[in-house]
Amino acid sequence: MNTLVGTGSLVRLVLRRERIQLPVWLLVITGIVAATASSFAQLYPTVQSRQEFAATIATNPSVLALSGPAQGLDTVGGMTEWKYGAVACVLVGLMAVFMTVRHTRADEETGRHELLGAGVVGRHAKLTATLIVVFGAGLVYALLIGLSLTAQGLPAAGSFAMGLGIGGCVWFFAAVTAVAVQVSSSSRAANGTGGIVIGAAYLLRAAGDSSAEDGPRWLSWLSPIGWSQQMRPFADERFWVLGLYVAISVVLLATGYALVGRRDIGAGLVPERAGRPQGRFGTFGLAWRLQRGILLGWAFGIVVMAGALGGISQSLKSILDSSPQVAQALQQIGGQQSIVDSFMAAILDVIALAVSVYAIQATLRLRSEETASRAEPVLAGSVARLRWAASHLVFALLGSAFLLAVAGIAIGLAVGLSQGDVATQLPRLLGAAMVQVPAVWVLAGIAAALFGLLPRLTSLAWAALVVFLLLGQLGSLFQLGQWALDISPFTHLPKLPGGAVTATPLIWLSVVAVGFAAAGLAAFRRRDLV
Amino acid sequence: MTTAISVSGLRKAFGRTQALDGLDLTVHTGEVHGFLGPNGAGKSTTIRVLLGLLRADGGRAELLGGDPWRDATELHRRLAYVPGDVTLWPTLSGGEVIDLLGRLRGGLDPKRRKDLLERFDLDPTKKGRTYSKGNRQKVALVAALASDVELLILDEPTSGLDPLMEEVFRDCIARERQDGRTVLLSSHVLAEVEALCDRVSIIRSGRTVESGTLAELRHLTRTSITAELASPLSGVDTMVGVHDYSAQGNKVQFEVDTAELDAVLRKLTEFGVRSLISQPPTLEQLFLRHYEVTA
Fold first, then answer.
1. Whether pLDDT at B205 is above 70
2. Contact A380/B100, CB-based, under 8 Å?
3. Which of A435, A492, B15, B84 could be bridged to B155 by S-S, CB 3.0 to 4.6 A?
4. How far is residue A354's CA from residue A351's CA, in Å, rounded to a whole number?
5. pLDDT tens-digit profile of A140-156?
């Protein structure tokens, strides 16, 4: 097959370029699986203690929506899968999307693909080499997770089932990306498409897992993240579900490969339209042109996500209403309203993390403009550095506040309309969403500080976000001290709706965010453009 | 005569690499100044220091009477810059980029913009990502040439342009000079330098090795002489400034430093000149001599 000539050398090239990132991903994800299992083993050493824990979860659909179906919770392995399985699938999905785009579409845009394609390299070699590495990474995940859990004395079948579910998600999302890179107009758009598919997969299983016996439980089966849970690790494993990953990946890959020849290098399937012959914008107008697509895309995604989650909250309520025993049990831990509220608070946490992704992305636009040498002609004009930096930072700060407002309004409307109480719910949930703003700003601030002080290490901003996410998800499970949890800005937010609002932490977070940003801007004024 | 750019002893290191090592550069107001040197000699670094994009480690740099780092914003109103490798925003049309860059400087002359678009045969409605390298270069050139500025800083501006467009570019620069604008032109195209530049500076490894008018520089180089004489030549091979001497019977061939040409020719005539071919140094030789590391 001469369309695959050169695949071997390209595989080595991909591995060379990933020699740091890929091992870090593998070790961090696997390490957290192992640590989660050992924490559960310590916290719930007996079957009885685990059964008590399971009892509090099985009745609470909001917890099921956020994590996954309650199965095998009387085992340490089952608890691990329940707590971390879906989160791990989302994280490895992101890895699969970014890595696949980086070695295919992004290379086309920088012209590196051309450099290679002119050599003795087949038409499909680049895509194939990339997929070999990413699919291989999926397999390594399965092995590492399986081995690390077996090593802790957990049943091998369940350990490897969990590993394969996570590895299967790598395969699925890499296969989706293989199609996305052919259809999208740019690498940015391909990354965005991948992110949307991951978000949709999470939402579908959340809706399915939290619905009542007679409800649309089948929704979980539409989601690759759902499949990893339907494989039932540590609870009578169903290994045949693995066939779904393989089958759907094969279909997607076939589509992706079929599209490869139908498109010119660097172009999308949709041809470029002509632009305006004249422009009437300056520094801020330029930033708006560069940022508006991403901002509006996010706003759209957030409306969908918030609407879907608001809808799930409605089905929660109906389950709570339908079962008097459940309602009674819940009454003891705060009542129905408090369950719905805590679910809303948890959703807003997730949305705040998602908006943080936007905030970092918008801030780091500064860096990508700089590395692409597009900052140079602007700064060679009569534009002060601060003005240029501010033109993008405005989007990171106001844009993320705008997105949280959109989320608050969308959830407020979804919940308010379904409960016939918009007048109360809308301001309540809008307020609860806006409370997240200072924490999101801290991440924009961190990204800005890195941009000014350590421009080559701006990707540490993403690492900070992952650390905050894991602290929020797993910090208490790992029994980390309060000082560790306090590292995350999200720890300091009042739990809304339902909790009490205090201004002090919000003010402090804003001060920290502004401090970071100011330090970054001051450093940027003095440093070389590199 | 006032100076537009005055640089002395400029130093800049990137980690261990000494990119600029005491560079001097003087560009008089109203001249087209060629800025030459082998790849990696520090041309672009110098330009980026002059634009306030990099901060020099040492030395003095003055641009249009101001400090390129401190007064960057004010100075940039009075200059236009064309980078050697133009990257455009993929979603912005060429016309939008031209207007943007113009607005970020002192402003654009709409009539010249229209005229230049026609002359460079550039379609301003195409999006950044669909332009070829040459067309991206044209976008930056049109934006710079249509700007109302005193100084043009051009970093290999014709790389990627076809010969026809190079011709258009030369016309444009000639007009800029007539209008009294100052141009700093970094280039590897010797014909272009010869046609356009009043003075040139040649740099190597971050230092200036030569600076002056082309005539002055030629003076510093060698003329190659091939001659046939009435009787065998003697005594020339030991004269000052004679190189690569070879003789075959009455025929001799050698190179001579242009400064010593007069003395050597006097000597030749003593032996009766039958034929004489004298080749003045070509620009290529001039530059090759300076570019070669061992030279």
1. yes
2. no
3. B84
4. 5
5. 999 999 999 999 999 99
Nearest CA in chain A to B73: A382
Residue of B nearest to A526 (CA): B55
CATH number for the segment(s) B222-291: 3.30.70
Secondary structure (3-state) at B248: strand
- Kind and range of the H or E element at A140? helix A125-151
- Tell me the C-alpha distance between B145 and B154, whole Å: 10
Chain A, 185 to 204: residues with Cβ < 8 Å from chain B are 186
Q: Do B129 and A372 touch (CB under 8 A)?
A: no
Q: What distance in Å separates the CA atoms of residue A193 and residue A180, rounded to the nearest whole number?
A: 7
Q: Residue ranges per domain, chain B?
A: 3-217, 222-291
| ipTM of predicted complex | 0.79
Cβ distance B187 to B34 under 8 Å? yes
Q: At what angle do helices B133-145 and B163-178 cross, to 10 degrees?
A: 10
Nearest Cα residue in chain A from B117: A277
Q: Please name the residue that has the structure tokens 């040139």.
A: B200
- For residues B170 and B195, the answer to whether their CB atoms sit within 8 Å is yes
Three-state SS sequence of A80-122: HHHHHHHHHHHHHHHHHHHHHHHHCHHHHHHCHHHHHHCCCCC
Interface A–B counts its CB contacts (< 8 A) at 117
d(CA B84, CA B157): 6
Put simply, the answer to whether B140 touches A377 (Cβ < 8 Å) is yes
Longest dimension (CA), chain A: 73
Question: What does the domain layout of chain A look like in residue ranges?
Answer: 1-267, 285-530
Q: Which residues pair with A350 in a beta bridge?
A: none
Please work out, in degrees rounded to the nearest 5, the angle formed at the alpha carbon of residue B279 by the alpha carbons of B278 and B285.
150
Q: Is A116 exposed, middle or buried (0-12, 13-18, 19+ CB in 10 A)?
A: middle
Chain B nearest CA to A281, separation (Å): 6
Largest CA distance in chain B: 76
B-chain CB neighbours of A285 within 8 Å are 100
Q: Under an 8 A CB cutoff, do A382 and B76 touch?
A: yes
What pLDDT digit, counting tens, does each position of A130-143 carry?
999 999 999 999 99
Q: CB–CB of A142/A160 below 8 Å?
A: yes
Instruction: With residue B97 as reference, give the H or E element that holds it.
Output: helix B94-104
C-alpha A486: how far from its chain's center? 22
* Token duo for residue B113: 């913009």
* Residue of chain B whose alpha carbon sits nearest to that of A284: B100
Residue with tokens 């369950």: A339
Is beta strand B151-155 parallel, antiparallel or unpaired with respect to B182-186?
Answer: parallel
Residue A279 touches chain B, beta carbons under 8 Å: yes
Residue of A447, A406, A452, A448 lying closest to A429 (CA atoms): A406
Q: Read off the amino acid at residue B154.
A: L
What digits encode the pLDDT tens for the residues A203-231? 899 888 888 777 788 999 999 999 999 99
Q: Which of B83, B106, B129 shows the shortest C-beta gap to A377?
A: B83
How near does any CA of chain A get to the CA of B128, in Å?
9
A280, A286, A383 member nearest B73 (Cβ):
A383
pLDDT in tens, B129-139: 889 999 999 99
Say if residue B38 is preceded by a cis peptide, omega within 30 of 0. Answer: no
Whether the CB of A276 is below 8 Å from some CB of chain B: the reply is yes
Per residue in B142-174, pLDDT tens?
999 999 899 999 999 998 899 999 999 999 999
Helix axes A242-260, A156-183, angle to 10 degrees: 20
Instruction: Tell whether A111 is within 8 A of chain B (Cβ).
Output: no
Chain B residues in contact with chain A using a Cβ-Cβ cutoff of 8 Å:
48, 51-55, 72-74, 76-77, 79, 81, 83, 85-101, 103-106, 124-127, 129-130, 140
From the list B54, B73, B100, the residue facing A382 with the nearest CB is B73
CATH architecture of B3-217: 3-Layer(aba) Sandwich (3.40)
